């Protein structure tokens, strides 16, 4: 495949996803870490020209965080002494309610990115079932008079997740998955990584190729699955920012590679690290 066609692939994925969102279906980007799911979700959300809310899934996320919660009392006191012989004091105490992030988004038709949603417990994520299917947000357990609010017609959701084999992930409920259109992201190929590094830095093509080759050799030595653009992008950004010569002869550049690629004793021996720079 040529570089141009791969660029189209990314654009096409966003274009297709935008169609689904605009028709009222949530989309779900899933795939290994560092392949551009969150970045694509943000690009997609911006295309809708609606306010964007970003939420991250985590173990402690609760329905209160999403719907809202009772946050204490609000006291209003009116002391009317307009006619000095007459004094009227009126006092009102009411419960104050803080809207959750999902409540506001649903009410005002925002675009929600729910990043790494499978890190949240399935019991909490069940709240999204009626939001996505019946287009209502139930307000259970909130002491509100209404039992639900309607979902704004412009409300849209983009989910992202890492598949099950990555740690800290709950198996996502089938019922929820059934309501989303899932787009699978593959490991990033070298050509695609090259494009990302070229778009994010002003490094020359040959320098980018060298960085990519160093990182892929390191991944091989560490028996790691390649395909994430994170590490090469870090190296490229530092080299670009400090105008470093991208070469094994440059001690500054080698240090950057060492800091970014060598994590612990078992990663690589000193000799193996040297081999990363061999021609
Ligand atoms: N198309 C792109 N253009 C510019 N930068 C990108 C692009 N895709 C990814 N990146 C950069 O690569 C890094 C990883 O991307 P991102 O966080 O989107 O991956 P991810 O698949 O969501 O990873 P994770 O599952 O670990 O959250 C980020 O620093 C991001 O800015």
Biggest pleated sheet: 5 strands, parallel
**CATH topology of the largest domain, which one?**
Rossmann fold
Strand order of the largest sheet: 2-5-8-1-9
CATH class of the largest domain: Alpha Beta
Number of domains: 3
Rg, nearest Å? 26 Å
Name the quaternary structure: single chain
Question: How far do the termini sit from each other?
Answer: 26 Å
Give the name of the CATH architecture of the largest domain.
3-Layer(aba) Sandwich
Shape: elongated
Q: Residue ranges: pLDDT <50 for 5 or more in a row? A: 1-6
Percent in helix: 40-55%
**CATH homologous superfamily heading of the largest domain:** P-loop containing nucleotide triphosphate hydrolases
Structure write-up:
- By secondary structure, the chain is α/β, with parallel strands linked by helices.
- It has helices at residues 3-22, 37-47, 63-67, 101-108, 122-125, 128-132, 174-178, 190-200, 205-221, 230-241, 251-261, 270-275, and strands at 27-30, 52-56, 68-80, 88-99, 111-115, 136-138, 148-150, 156-161, 181-184.
- The protein folds into 3 domains: 3-65 and 100-184, P-loop containing nucleotide triphosphate hydrolases (Rossmann fold, 3-Layer(aba) Sandwich), CATH 3.40.50; 69-98, no CATH class; 190-275.
- 41% of the residues lie in helices and 20% in strands.
- The strands form 3 sheets. A 5-stranded parallel sheet has the order 2-5-8-1-9, with helices on both faces. It has a two-stranded antiparallel sheet with strand order 3-4.
- A hairpin with a 7-residue loop joins β3 (68-80) and β4.
- It is elongated and about 95 Å long.
- The model is unreliable at 1-6 (pLDDT under 50).
- Adenosine-5'-triphosphate binds at residues 33-39, 160, 162, 196, 199-200, 229-230, 233.
- It is found in: Cytoplasm; Gas vesicle.
- This is Gas vesicle protein GvpN.
- One of its GO terms (molecular function) is ATP binding.
């Amino acid at each position: 495949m040529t570089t141009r066609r791969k660029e189209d692939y990314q654009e096409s994925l966003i274009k297709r996803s935008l169609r689904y969102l605009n028709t009222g279906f949530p989309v779900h980007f899933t795939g290994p870490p560092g392949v551009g799911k969150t970045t694509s979700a943000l690009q997609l959300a911006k295309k809708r020209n609606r306010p964007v809310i970003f939420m991250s899934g985590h173990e402690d996320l609760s329905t209160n965080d999403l719907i809202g919660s009772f946050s204490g009392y609000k006291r209003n006191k009116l002391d009317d002494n307009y006619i000095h012989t007459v004094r009227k004091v009126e006092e009102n105490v009411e419960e104050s309610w803080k809207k959750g992030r999902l409540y506001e988004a649903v009410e005002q038709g925002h675009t929600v990115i729910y990043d790494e949603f499978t890190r949240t417990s399935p019991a909490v994520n069940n709240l999204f079932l009626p939001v996505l299917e019946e287009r209502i947000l139930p307000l259970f357990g909130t002491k509100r008079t209404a039992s639900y609010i309607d979902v704004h017609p412009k409300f849209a959701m983009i989910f992202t997740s890492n598949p099950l084999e990555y740690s800290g992930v709950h198996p996502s409920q089938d019922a929820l998955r059934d309501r989303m259109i899932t787009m699978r992201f593959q490991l990033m190929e070298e050509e695609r990584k090259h494009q990302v590094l070229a778009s994010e830095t002003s490094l020359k093509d040959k320098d980018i190729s060298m960085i990519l080759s160093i990182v892929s050799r390191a991944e091989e030595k560490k028996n790691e699955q390649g395909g994430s653009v994170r590490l090469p992008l870090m190296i490229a950004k530092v080299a670009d920012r400090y105008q470093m010569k991208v070469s094994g002869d440059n001690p500054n550049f080698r240090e950057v590679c060492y800091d970014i690629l060598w994590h612990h004793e078992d990663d690589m021996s000193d000799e193996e690290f040297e081999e990363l720079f061999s021609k």
